[in-house]
Amino acid sequence: MFGLSDYATAIIFFVLIILLTLGITAYASMQNKSTSDHYVAGGKIKGWQNGLAIAGDYLSAASFLGIAGAIALQGFAGFYLSIGFLVAFLVVLLLVAEPLRNLGKYTLADMLTARFNMSSIRSAAAVSTIAISMFYMIAQLVGAGALIQLLLGIPYAYSVIGIGILMTIYIVVGGMVATTYIQIIKAVLLIAGSVVLVLIVLANYSFNPFALFNAVESEIGSTALHPPAPSSITASLDVISLNIALVLGTAGLPHILIRFLTVPDAKTARSSIVWSTWIIGLFYLITPVLGYGAALFVGQDAIRAASPEGNLAAPQLASTLGGPILFAFVSAVAFATIIAVVSGLVLAASSAFAHDFYTNVIRNGEASDSEQFRAARIAAIGISVAAIVLALPLQGANVAFLVALAFAVAASANVPVILLTIFWRRFNSTGAVAGMIVGLVSSVGLVILSPLVLGEAAIFPFERGSPALISVPLGFLACYLGTVLGGRGAEREREQGLQIDYDEIYVRSLTGLRPEDIDQETVQRPTGH
Amino acid sequence: MDSHRNQEWVAVERTSAFQEYSRKRKAFLIPATIFFLLFFMGLPLLAAFTTVLNGKAVGPLTWAYIYGIAQFFMTWIMMHLYVNRANKWDALVERARQEVAEEKGR
């Protein structure tokens, strides 16, 4: 579908991005000297840097390619993803970010075990972190393989393996420092690429968005500008379920949450949220221009011909409006987007494996710093290989909705436990483990029973397969029932040293004070905090 | 846990500064969270069960788009409201820490 010279230019851009990111990784390796550097960049990232890096982690291929395609083909229904992904940030900011930063160290499990002194909690949190990150990573790899095959003509399997090798190198060599810089560069490239595309589209309408919408109405039809009319109760509940997953899921995504552990204090965490919310919001706000622009200039038939899900709408739009150079640039931006996001996911998943399973469960917290560092790097290789092997047979799956499913699992397995650990005094370890297991099993199970996997034989009727409407309440219910019916009760767990006193958790989660801050005789300002 | 450690945290919790911080935080967060969740779910609920958002609002823009774009501004405004408040609450945390330290110094 694209000419040979398009490939040549695109390959030059891809190679430039690979060289740039490898250069950054080499530079970052000089700062990647200890376990803390590897997991959280030593907690030394600046607010604006972390803000851009959060945007980089968050604006995945699903956002850039998936939403543009969804709006091009489905109209307003695709814009739900934009709105949901953004408003979800409020859940993170208002309810989760600061308590997590205040209680945590390297991983999500660290925050939960700040309260529950038990390896079963740590293991359950590690399992759900790895499951969610894998789900998300496979979605990105599947999208990347399809993208590169169509853009460059490289077979799917080679593309997936190639990206897999790159993400392994970034993390093993450069750790969190490299990931952070790669996310920042990728965020800047993605914004630049999107703004250029939007300006070229709008230039055709005298920079008047209303003229663009008028053109959509006359050439595509007014149905593209509003949500589809209610058809059946199942379809309506499907939409509700998708939106619940979108708004709650972000607060349970490990690779986003660990970004708040890379900054030195709560004030910096807030400043990074200000940066990321503006960048992410402005990006999502212009997605309709990308999507409708593609529908108008490329045509819905041509978009479907290239990819039935519309995943190539943005590069196709670049090719139509800007020729080979812009096509090559936008394709390279999509490529940078994918490698940056998968590297963040490898870091989250391998930290959960190495820090939570190896160091704290298997070695009982007694591994030396160099042993932990080595374990983190070996885990990164293992996680990458597993993700590649799982992505290879899944060619042709829809990127945007695969990611939405990762959100559903995060919303069901992690969010109830995170919220109740912070806010519920009576919560106990049985409830926490039950909540994570039930949330994980029910969300993944319902996806398997949905049309996405079983097709015609589906038992769970939601077309988009989002299980959140059922699995999120189940996650909360399991937390509640586990606490009330099972186990020792919060009081007895405290007496046995299995749970830290809630007064401590409450004060620490709100203030960020550490035990050493108040256990002192004089009014000295604690250092390094 | 040893009770000595617990008392340290209870002491922080009892300071007037922490009480004020905790009260102000709840007074903002509870209504804010309820509001933004309802405001967010309002769009898919209205769109999934009615067609009231399908009409034109401004020029070619439908009410669905107006509502959707309003969510962006709601998010940005809410984010700044929270960050401004939280940055002021930091002073209360510092005061609570000092109150406890002075208490012990006595």
Automatic annotation (TrEMBL), chain A:
Membrane topology designation: Multi-pass membrane protein
Chief location of this protein within or outside the cell: membrane
Key words of the record: Cell membrane, Ion transport, Membrane, Sodium, Symport, Transmembrane, Transmembrane helix, Transport
GO cellular component, one term: plasma membrane
Compartment list: Cell membrane
InterPro entries for the chain: Na/Glc_symporter_sf, Na/solute_symporter, Na/solute_symporter_CS, Sodium:Solute_Symporter
Transmembrane segments: 6-30, 51-73, 79-97, 124-150, 156-177, 184-207, 240-261, 273-298, 325-354, 375-394, 400-424, 431-454, 466-486
Listed Pfam families: SSF (PF00474)
GO MF entries: acetate transmembrane transporter activity; symporter activity
Recorded superkingdom: Bacteria
NCBIfam families for the chain: sss
Family, similarity comment: Belongs to the sodium:solute symporter (SSF) (TC 2.A.21) family.
Protein name (database record): Cation/acetate symporter
Organism: uncultured Rubrobacteraceae bacterium
